[in-house]
Amino acid sequence: MPRHKGDHEARRRDVSAAVWRVLAAHGFGGLTLRAVATEMGATTGLLTHYFPSKKDLVAHALTLLDEHRTATRKAGPEPGGLGALRATLLDILPSTPQAAADNRIWVSSWDAALADPDLAAGHAARYARSRERIRHHVREAQRLGELPSADADDLAASVLSFTLGLVVQALFSPQEFPPERQVRLLDGHLATLAAPAGGLPNGLR
Amino acid sequence: MPRHKGDHEARRRDVSAAVWRVLAAHGFGGLTLRAVATEMGATTGLLTHYFPSKKDLVAHALTLLDEHRTATRKAGPEPGGLGALRATLLDILPSTPQAAADNRIWVSSWDAALADPDLAAGHAARYARSRERIRHHVREAQRLGELPSADADDLAASVLSFTLGLVVQALFSPQEFPPERQVRLLDGHLATLAAPAGGLPNGLR
């Protein structure tokens, strides 16, 4: 029954949009069935038809975040190697108001995710994929001679560590970490990794 | 009236212990006046005498976390410079079950803190103090010639970024980030920063 199915999909999109607005306004701590129902002008009962529990709602919200991040990722021709690595990391940093708002939701999801094994597994898989993408760029940079040869897994984990921790600090102290300082710190970090033989690391000169 | 004051203090300690147990079991997402009251075998009404609102409760929990972290910080004679920096960062990493449990609570507090300007300001001040402590060790390491001269503020922010991001990844993927790998990544990061002139950074050899 296509028509019925179309209605169902349309309603799901309405629900998704309402979930997104609640997250943007209140973070995961404010994400409740009631809040989403109110946002939609619907009853909690209708909402439980789509999401039987709070956990289903949170899982859906995490999927929305994933889709949003993929959709907003800068497209265009990526240079290979270190340039692509830099672009990937810049894309994560909260260096625009929109990126800050997205990161705020993302960081606030860690509480809900850590409290539930299934959600935690989903997050673990997400970060594993991020490391894989980063590792790909690291290997290409090594092939091009832009990064010294070293364990690419460890390098990818280190680079993602640096980036996630910078996100957290910048969210709490935006005035201490304006966009230009975020970029400077990232470039300093990459220059340190790329330090040519025979001199001090660029980022430390 | 000392006796009354003593009772009040004793009760506050009971409440604090109950808050701690709720956090350890359910994270900040599970921290409600009702959960703490149940944990104490008390009424929500009694609890609101100490904490009029959920926000007061969360603020108290963050203070408890601070006290706990200060109390569990390894004492003993710290070597100056790079050794002290390494010890400070090792102290943060979730490299023991207890440190993992503490970090889990800490990371889960970010959701509540980001949703409230006052709590966010408290967290911003906490991380500023962390950077100050790290910067002190960085400066000492620079004085000793263990780290190249560079902007100590930026170095401290970078080192804390790396550490916080490693905490997050290790919490979600403990099997990929066992304690020995956490230490190896940290040592690799420090070796990169300390890279001597005339060779590749140690962490990248």
Automatic annotation (TrEMBL), chains A, B:
Residues 32-51 bind DNA. It comes from Actinomadura violacea. It holds the Pfam family TetR_C_6. Coiled coil: none annotated. This is TetR family transcriptional regulator. SUPFAM superfamilies: Homeodomain-like, Tetracyclin repressor-like, C-terminal domain. It comes from the Bacteria. Residues 9-69 form the HTH tetR-type domain. Keywords: DNA-binding, Repressor, Transcription, Transcription regulation.
